[in-house]
UniProtKB/TrEMBL annotation:
Reaction catalysed by this enzyme: (2R)-2,3-dihydroxy-3-methylbutanoate = 3-methyl-2-oxobutanoate + H2O; (2R,3R)-2,3-dihydroxy-3-methylpentanoate = (S)-3-methyl-2-oxopentanoate + H2O
Cofactor(s) listed in the protein's UniProt record: Mg(2+); [2Fe-2S] cluster
GO molecular function: 2 iron, 2 sulfur cluster binding; dihydroxy-acid dehydratase activity; magnesium ion binding
Cofactor note: Binds 1 [2Fe-2S] cluster per subunit. This cluster acts as a Lewis acid cofactor.
Taxonomic classification: Bacteria, Pseudomonadati, Pseudomonadota, Gammaproteobacteria, SAR86 cluster
Family, as annotated: Belongs to the IlvD/Edd family.
Enzyme class: lyase
EC number: 4.2.1.9
Source organism of this protein record: SAR86 cluster bacterium SAR86A
Protein name: Dihydroxy-acid dehydratase
InterPro entries from the UniProt entry: DHAD_IlvD/Edd, Dihydro-acid_dehy_C, DihydroxyA_deHydtase, DiOHA_6PGluconate_deHydtase_CS, ILV_EDD_C, ILV_EDD_N, IlvD/EDD_N
Active-site residues per Swiss-Prot or TrEMBL entry: 468 (proton acceptor)
Amino acid sequence: MSSRKYSKELVDGPNQAASRSMLRGVGFTSEDFTKPFVGIASTGAKVTPCNMHINKLSEIVEDSINNSGGKGVLFNTITVSDGISMGTQGMKYSLISREVIADSIETVVGCLGYDGLIAIGGCDKNMPGCLIGMARLDRPSIFIYGGSIKPSNENTDYVTVSEKVGEFSKGEINEDRLIHYEKISVEGPGSCGGMYTANTMASAVEALGMSLPGSSSQDAVSESKKDDCVSAGEAIMNLLESDIKPSDIMTREAFENAITVVIALGGSTNAVLHLLAIAHSIGVELELDDFTKIGKETPVLADLKPFGSHYMSELNANGGIQPLMKLLLDKGLLHGDCLTVTGKTLSQNLENVTPYEKKNIIRDFDNPIKENSHLRIMYGNLAVDGAVAKITGKEGTSFEGNARVFNSEEEGVEAILSNSINDGDVIVIRYEGPKGGPGMREMLKPTSAIMGLGLGDKVGFITDGRFSGGTHGFVVGHISPEAAEGGNIALVENGDTILIDAENDQLILKVEDKVLDERRSNWTNPIKTPKKGVLAKYAKSVKSASLGATTD
């Protein structure tokens, strides 16, 4: 099959002279028209440290493609910042940006006849957005991760600052000290440095086989990240020559590999949402219960923040995630015959990988952080279609308490920071789901305040919204059906008893059915959905969180 499957329709023959004329205007030569066109989707922008360097990386990729016999064509797509918008109404646009990124990549590549695609992303929604776009197009593709930021000299990062707000509220530090942490904790390019959502998804993409080995752990500012970009040109040309497409790589077994690696790393709950959505886009059947099945066999091995001690940059200095994948492969927990963007199988990629020299970050199987998954898929009358919990065991494995109900994140944060939450409370923040938000906001601000106040093991927290990858504590999110759809979370009242059972994976509202039926008969949705704009379109099209909050 020709490696110019799409571009030749755009530029071959006398009838396409006008198209070629336009392309000559942006620098194409006659020789370029005979080469495969490779789109380079850059999420570069100065709106966030995660992406501020990515346009420069894109230029390295462009040169790499051109030097390898292709014609690279740069274009940009958007990014937003979860960290900057956290706790505000602006956060409603965060998950939506995943769909905008996917739509824009599909639109540009589909319109302009690119034969292949390389996408470079940094902040949380970039990875799934790029992968969904690649899946829809199903043309030879590679994802490059923009890389991690390093922690400060005081071993602090963005999440540290979030939790210091809680300490300030409690009176343990003054405002000058809070501002000190604000000033030192985020310096220079790169995504948040713990095993938060960006690094979780970058690792999942590498485990899927859609990025080159090592891409997920490299520091944003490093020679290895530049080398990753240089290597991409030859790699994409090989994929084009061999006609290896995302559908050849992102198989059911590859998704199982990604889930296994996410669990072993102690990754973000958002991986559940995003992997379900990517699988849907590529036509692979994946469901919530698959995370439970794989989680029973997979231990948490990584002592990484937010609940651990180390940053991604430390893991990178010790070999990245490749030795972990080799360890998992040797234990029979990964499918080694899965194809990757190197053109080789996973087993072949890992053949010469050496074990970790130090065992302080990635533990051995006989000394895990947790013997099975920290990602718990819960069901019960509060989550008929499922919910996702992040339980490391440090908080315990079961929590029962009295509901404190809030109809927005802002209401919940105000209560937490005013010290009106008591030991034994289960905080309920609802109407923050995909439709109800709309946009399914992340709850890092309230959960960080809880940790900063020292309540991490003293209160529970449930929501139909999401959690940041930086969240830790006794938390359950993605509750489905959501409140705006009339799910039972909408019927909870202050003082109701709620059981969060991570041993039996249950989320139970201890209220009799007849009482719930009576409450339902009197329930009306208090949330006014936007009438126009992207929030309105999203609310109309988005599916349940239990299905990945897809819009297709």
